[in-house]
């Protein structure tokens, strides 16, 4: 499959962009009758050709008039390469500056400059070149090649085609295995086929039969890809960089708009609040707060909260699929110029609720690397699943290359100091609880998780509720709460914390290895019961005897779990060896025997013998024959 590239034009109105595209491709990019009638490009146009090298080019022709800057940004936004057009007979003009600023704001670093209409002003070519070099100084296209042509006479077209080959040869190769984000620039209906959307595919691969997520102004649903076209030809697969038409199943075209997006399902964060850095244009603390944000083909009203001249929080009127390192163009209301260019630094920014948070956030963002800060993201949360950071658009290194103080724990990336605090808090909780309640089998895993989710702030907010906690629980105030996550993942993280605390989780209880529940003050009472049963194993103590010894249900349950006593039905307490002692006596009776005979042989009461015999039946040591007779199972 040949390499494909998408190139968007840019430049002032009536400088020959559409004529140039027509000369290169043999296709008329203007689609509307009004455009052809007026000789003015109003909306995006599309054309394609094949270079001598075999590389395929798709052109997105944008309008140059200041009234249609939004349409221009929709065409230029997703494009990886720009073709900047300046007419020799007119030179640099107002919209040339606006389009240059847009290219700068979008971070497009690959492109070329074409000086057109050379046949109309051959003496002005060198002057125009000098203007271009001066105006592009300090921008991504500063070193871009400049080609002089006349689209009407053909002058310079062979050289331009050669330069296009050179520019595309050095372009960064697209990622075919990445996630798809196709910004929609057109949506329409084709009779017999249904709804079709078009856009520039810059990453990932689309295949007929795929299921994709459709997110937009009025739509949020999963849709199927019924068919694909690229360069006006039907195909089963489209790879970047390419213009693509996608035939969607069961969705009306009227529900779709420019600025909607087709996405790899579940792989993109859909956000309306982001933290950004200014890359060019007006300072962000200039007092303008209501702006229009252009991202991909979308144009969304936004509110700006400036932290300083270069960093701010941007709140969009509707959520969009965004990632770290995305580029955004801002326009002020009523203005046809670029206000500022932004770089997205954080798509999951922290809440700002305390005095001074804005200034602190400005300092943090000033230190933020362009492609994201793994350490900062992990440290801020304490722990975060690797897949979450990948969705944010961060490049997460393997374990050996992780930053200092970040370690991998299963599916989690964990801040080492925070992990240590969770481990110490868990030790403290379990130690304190077992000291306060020595009869406990441990601390419930759920209680440990809840304790780790408390912070000093949450304790203050809970007020009186905190006062009801036990002293041990009240001390558990880790600096950061245990994060939320998928059930299996959070359990794995909690198990690692428990393990590093030198503890174990058994039957839902966290405890030290080998921990046996103590009896504390009940020890003397259980010891007295053991002494009495040793003297007469079938003389089970009465309820009043147990109360006098301070033995309630909890104490008896702990003693039974520790193997000190055996509880039968109806509150009967015997020694653990009593059933075996009873069997030796019952085996000496004539078989079968009655309940009365068993009671007499054991020297006990019906209160004791009936639950004891039922216990023996349950263990399969005796068998009940009828309402009055049993026998020992040999």
UniProtKB/TrEMBL annotation:
Extent of the signal sequence: none
A GO term, aspect molecular function: translation elongation factor activity
Renumbered residue ranges of the record's region Disordered: 453-481
InterPro entries associated with the record: Beta-barrel_SelB (IPR057335), EF-Tu_GTPase (IPR050055), EFTu-like_2 (IPR004161), P-loop_NTPase (IPR027417), SelB_WHD4 (IPR015191), T_Tr_GTP-bd_dom (IPR000795), Transl_B-barrel_sf (IPR009000), Transl_elong_SelB (IPR004535)
Cell compartment(s), UniProt: Cytoplasm
Superkingdom, taxonomy of origin: Bacteria
Biased composition (Basic and acidic residues): 457-472
Entry keyword annotation includes Cytoplasm: yes
Keyword presence, Cytoplasm: yes
Annotated ranges, domain Tr-type G: 2-175
Keyword vocabulary terms for this entry: Cytoplasm, Elongation factor, GTP-binding, Nucleotide-binding, Protein biosynthesis
Role of this protein: Translation factor necessary for the incorporation of selenocysteine into proteins. It probably replaces EF-Tu for the insertion of selenocysteine directed by the UGA codon. SelB binds GTP and GDP.
Stated name of the protein: Selenocysteine-specific elongation factor
Organism lineage string: Bacteria, Bacillati, Actinomycetota, Actinomycetes, Micrococcales
